[in-house]
Amino acid sequence: MAKSLKQRLAILSDAAKYDASCASSGTQKRDSATSGGLGSTEGMGICHAYAPDGRCISLLKILLTNFCLYDCVYCVNRSSSNVERARFTAEEVVWLTLEFYRRNYIEGLFLSSGIIRSSDYTMEQLVRVAKDLRTLHNFRGYIHLKTIPEASPHLIEEAGLYADRLSINIELPTDQGIEQFAPQKHPARIRQSMSDLSLKIEAAKEPTLKTKRRQRFVPGGQSTQMIVGVDGATDATILGSSVDLYSRFRLRRVYYSAFSPIPDASSALPLSRPPLMREHRLYQADWLYRFYGFDVTEITSVRADGNLELDIDPKLAWALANRDRFPVDVNRADKEMLLRVPGLGTSSVPAILSARRHKRLRLDDLERLRVSVRKVRPFIMAEGWSPLRLTDRTDLRELFAPKPKQLSLFG
Amino acid sequence: MIRLGLRGRGDLAEWRDAARALLRAGVPPTDVDWRVQDGGADLFGLADDPLPPPDPSLSAPTVPAAFLTLADAVICHRDPSRFALLYRLLWRVQGERALLSIPSDPDVARAETLEKAIRRDAHKMKAFVRFKEMGPPHAGRRRFAAWFEPDNYIVARTSGFFQRRFTDMDWIIVTPKGSAAWDGQHLTLSDEPSQKPDLIDDTDDLWRTYFAHIFNPARLKVQAMQSQMPKKYWKNLPEADLIPDLIASAEDRMRDMIDREATQPKPFHYRIRERE
Ligand code: SF4
User: Fold this and answer.
1) Which chain B residue's Cα is nearest to A46?
2) Which atom of ligand 1 is least distant from the CA of A75?
3) At what angle are helices A235-249 and A276-291 packed, to 10 degrees?
4) Which of A131, A400, B73, B117 has its Cβ near the most Cβ atoms within 10 Å?
5) What is the mean predicted confidence (pLDDT) over A386-392?
6) Any idea where the domains of chain B sit in the sequence?
7) How many angstroms separate the most distant Cα atoms in chain B?
8) Contact between residue B115 and residue B70 where contact means Cβ atoms under 8 Å apart
9) Phi and psi dihedrals of A209, rounded to 5?
10) Cβ–ligand 1 contact at A68 (below 6 Å)
11) CA B94: distance to chain centroid?
12) Percent with pLDDT over 70 in chain B
């Protein structure tokens, strides 16, 4: 019996949930006030709901189909899996997106797909959804399309005219990993696609000679996803691979997805799955690299085995391994060093810099800047406060690390 | 002591007119008793004092743009001390020009805390309003309505977002703290409280299906969900009553996935692989 729309929605959202990204921020600002259509994007993304896994739901994240010709070992949709299969038509995805959008459940679409018939056929279907939304329905909400491996460059280029963001998944941090666990995929070709896309994005930023206007092309940039814990890569390898992608292809984001149990898993998968905390620590380290001026090697060299600490965050781990850099004087230190203090962040540091122009800061001033004084106290000097020398304290780690019992919650 | 009652429903002009008169008359913050009015008189049935006449010996007050931006948000807060706080800041900024750039000052810190609460409240309104369709289209436009319960008087300042986003449909958002409506031509605002209407939309069922299936039971993180989607919002979210069951069954579903023996692939898998 043919499956109803609702049954297929269930199957195809089940199949989509392993993609970590649901971001809807960082694209151009636009709205429907003058076009009289539907949809807008305004800077900060909006999470319209949260699932009990704590993940933000801002987009309708679905697969066009979960049939797939490929057999990536870690994937629930691989050809050898026995999950229930389903397929939407392009019109159905368009309809669902618009109806969900009108009710303010979501602020856009993240469409991906298993590969059917051929890469180009599949990619054409994805492009059609985006094109119809934009041109037939005057839709100005957010659209993220996953590009299909091996799809022709002209299709990716067309996708870029309608999508806010395109992603090309690197899948695993090392080439050997990709070859072993995604046998139909080719690491060199994945990187080639990323490189082509990044060049096109850069080129579109130049105003054209004729119109003097910038072409609208993937204004939200490209992103990728890496699955953690399938191959044996260390955190140092994973983060090194991210830095390489960030710097070579100007990616907006690398998403990390701790490999999670899936229905009908392959016996070729490792038995033990990585703790979710590992994924969290990778995001923190990635953040330190992108916004806090840390070098990835500074963060990953804290432990000899190249992995991040699980029980304390990477910034604190770095501070404890570099105690001679502390205490930091909040009334004199430069911005770069303030950002390295555990407990100070990208919102409190500018506030400190602004406030200290007018007075010498004490601990209670910091309190009013919404800084957790308990946390930062051991690492800073302030008016009327100087801590014990860090090198003299042996209990610091215990002070911050959660009790072992709590840890098992994340195990 | 001058007693002043304001309606206090997020309208900056109302407070600004009173504050400007007080400042021109040289009335210090400690001499004003600000209250929230209920009808013509305040909660205790006391009438307002008249505003004092300006003192011609005083120079014209200055109001930095940053103050107005801050005040525009703070005035929407339900905190009864907001009028006095803003007047104290306005008074002090006449002499202390750099005041607003000292985030560690107690008055500035307090105002910024209120401003932050307003921003969060408005952000959650943009996120958690759920439109329901009201019958067939009218004059070619589809019609939607939503009920929302904000903490503060934010409907007016948030309505522009809905207008820019939902331009091609008619909509109305009603709340206990005012309402906003759009018909394609005009945005109509009211600060009068509304009652919760009865709204039903069949598409909610598809959304609930999506919500239940996008959740990964192997990654249960209830705390993370609740800090972003506090329970006070749940009663107006069509998906929220699914949450307790999703949480309760998560552990069993995960175990089931882990314990399940690997299965044999279907024939089509072998056919595809043979072609390689
Ligand atoms: S190509 Fe994509 S959908 Fe298909 S098996 Fe690989 S990861 Fe899964």
Assistant:
1) B127
2) 8
3) 40
4) B73
5) 73
6) 2-121, 129-190, 203-259
7) 96
8) yes
9) -65, -40
10) yes
11) 31
12) 96
Whole-number pLDDT of residue A406: 40
Cβ–Cβ below 8 Å for B161 and A42: yes
Residue range A147-153: mean pLDDT, rounded:
93
Q: Which residue has the tokens 């931006």?
A: B69
Take residue A260 and report the two structure tokens written for it. Answer: 């999670």
Task: State the pLDDT at residue B147.
Answer: 98
Residue A108: what pLDDT? 97
Distance CA(A388)–CA(A386), nearest Å, equals 7
What's phi and psi for B272, nearest 5 deg?
A: -65, -45
**C-beta of A75 in contact with ligand 1 (< 6 A):** yes
Q: Is residue B44 pLDDT above 80, yes or no?
A: no
Alpha helix stretches (DSSP H) within chain B? 12-24, 65-74, 82-95, 106-128, 155-165, 204-214, 222-228, 243-259, 267-274
Look up residue B71 and give its two tokens.
């005040």
Q: Cα(A396)–Cα(A387) distance, rounded to whole angstroms?
A: 12
Tokens linked to A376? 């930062």
Omega prior to B230 cis, within 30 of 0: no
Q: What is the pLDDT of residues B229-239, one digit of tens each?
A: 999 999 999 99
Lowest mean pLDDT among A30-44, A212-226, A389-403, B4-18: A389-403
CA-CA distance, A142 to A109, in Å (whole number)? 6
Q: Which 3 state secondary structure label does DSSP give A3?
A: coil
**How far is Cα A70 from Cα A77, in angstroms, rounded to an integer?**
9
Best of B104, B133, B147, B241 to disrupt the A interface by mutation (most A CBs within 10 Å)? B104
- Cβ–Cβ under 8 Å, residues A23 and B147: no
What's the A74 CA to ligand 1 centre distance in angstroms? 9
**What is the residue type of A62?**
I
Q: How far is B244 from chain A (nearest CA, A)?
A: 9
Q: What pTM was computed for the model? A: 0.93
Task: Find chain B residues with C-beta within 8 A of A63's C-beta.
Answer: none
- Domains in chain A and their CATH numbers? 5-220 (3.20.20), 314-400 (no CATH)
pLDDT at B257: 84
Mean pLDDT (chain B) is 92
